[in-house]
Amino acid sequence: MSKKILVLPGDGIGPEIITEAHRILDWVIADSGVAIEVEEGLVGGISYDVHGEPLTAETLKAAQASDAVLFGAIGGPKWDGTVAYDKRPEQGLLDLRKGMNAFANLRSAVCFPALADASSLKREFIEGLDILFVRELMGGVYFGEPRGIETLEDGTRVGLNTQRYADWEIERVARVAFEMARKRGSHVTSVEKANVMESGVLWREVVTKMGADEYPDVKLDHMYADNCAMQLVKNPKQFDVIVTDNLFGDLLSDAAAMLTGSLGMLPSASLSDEGPGLYEPIHGSAPDIAGQGIANPIAAILSLAMALRYSLDMGGYAEKIEAAVANVLESGTRTVDIMADGCTKVGTTGMGDAILAE
Ligand code: NAI
Ligand code: MG
Q1: Where are the domains of the chain?
Q2: Which residues line ligand 1 (CB under 6 A)?
Q3: Which residues participate in substrate binding (predicted)?
Q4: 6: how many CB neighbours lie within 10 A of its CB?
Q5: How far apart are CA 305 and CA 321, in angstroms?
Q6: ipTM summary value
């Protein structure tokens, strides 16, 4: 049976970086002989301009019918404040995640050895760093009801959000974390604030039971979220897989991303139980550099590698791509965001060429 990837380049630098990932995908198809059908679609601002919606029902259907979606980035000043709130480009991504039931967001913070000196941090502190965040993406305080802004009888106004987690929501994301850990360092750190939050108490209880019953071979630690923030800055190499809720995962994974240097380096995956995964760089549409041909395509290319590994059962090709990226960086080929003394500066296409050649 042939496989299918839906490619959604989006706005700003999205099309520029996705073009390079697409070239590498074409090479994978040719080299492996695996029949992968690649379809392209519109999402975000460009979809709004053409269809009046940031995500059309047809595009969502095509996403649901694929094995993986490779997504670029969306948004930009053109649409900021000029389109209705529920039609803004960013809504297209939220609707896509929801429509694909993508509840587990995987983000890695990996430090390539060649870039260990490019960071403002000391080499021994980050060299070899390889953390995988598994962030719950469909629940928690960003979505919990009740929510809103209320005016009380005495005129006081109250902004209200609700942190709410059901046991099955915790179970399904914890399972992803344990399964990932088995393929990596066999160590899960579960992060909440069970000291002050009821949702954290339940979180810890559910994860502890799953670990003991189903994953006794995986080392499990628990950590309060505030301590985790401190530990990420103090000794980040202690972590393998970190599983946490939507809010803490948002903050902690953004902070950890910066341990490794440029936003242009970091891929992500959003997975459901069954059905396709959504793969995208963690950066946005970078309007400040769009159209100049200088964006770093590595995050997009590594997102493709994740798609091959997690949704297409082609982990061998994911490893080849990751090794090619490491070798190209080692050889001193750099886009401007990761440029260092003595290295050769290339643009988006030049970086794609170098990785393809490798
Ligand atoms: P951003 O990630 O687009 O850019 C932040 C900074 O990082 C900029 O200076 C940019 O030039 C640089 N940068 C980002 N990706 C890069 C790459 N591949 N190579 C080299 N440099 C890179 O975040 P910002 O500026 O906050 O948002 C810009 C637009 O993107 C907004 O409309 C925002 O809503 C949207 N956005 C979309 C996301 C998505 O599609 N998933 C995620 C975050 C923001
Ligand atoms: Mg964030």
Answers
A1: 1-115+263-358, 119-260
A2: 13, 17, 73-76, 90, 93, 263-264, 280, 283-289, 295-296, 299, 337
A3: 97, 107, 135, 226
A4: 23
A5: 6
A6: 0.98
Please give the angle made by the CA atoms of 35, 281 and 5, to the nearest 5 degrees: 20
Q: H or E stretch including 89?
A: helix 89-99
Q: Which residues surround ligand 2, an ion (CB under 5 A)?
A: 250, 254
Instruction: Indicate the CATH number for domain 1-115+263-358.
Output: 3.40.718.10
Pairing label, strands 157-160, 148-151: antiparallel
Q: Whose CA is nearest to atom 27 of ligand 1?
A: 284
Using an 8 Å Cβ cutoff, are 14 and 70 in contact? Answer: no
Residue 269, beta-bridge partner list: 106, 279
149-206 per-position pLDDT tens digit: 999 999 999 999 999 999 999 999 999 999 999 989 999 999 999 999 999 999 999 9
- Count H helices, E strands: the chain? 12, 14
The catalytic residue among 3, 87, 142, 237 is 142
The token pair that represents 240 in the structure block: 């393998």
Say how far apart CA 305 and CA 308 lie, in whole Å: 5
Answer yes or no: are the C-beta atoms of 134 and 177 closer than 8 Å: yes
- Residues making up the annotated binding site are 97, 107, 135, 226, 250, 254, 284-296
1-115+263-358 and 119-260 agree in CATH topology: yes
Q: What does each C-alpha distance from 22 to 44, 132, 203, 301 come to in angstroms?
A: 19, 25, 39, 8
Concerning whether 240 is annotated as a catalytic residue, the answer is no
Which CATH architecture describes the domain 119-260? 3-Layer(aba) Sandwich (3.40)
Cβ-based burial of 247 (10 A; exposed 0-12, middle 13-18, buried ≥19): middle
Two structure tokens written together for 302: 């590594």
Structure tokens at 167: 């046991």
69-123 pLDDT per residue, tens: 999 999 999 999 899 988 999 999 989 999 999 999 999 888 888 887 766 667 7
Residues 195-212: b if buried by 16+ CB within 10 A, e if exposed: eebebbebbbebbeebbe
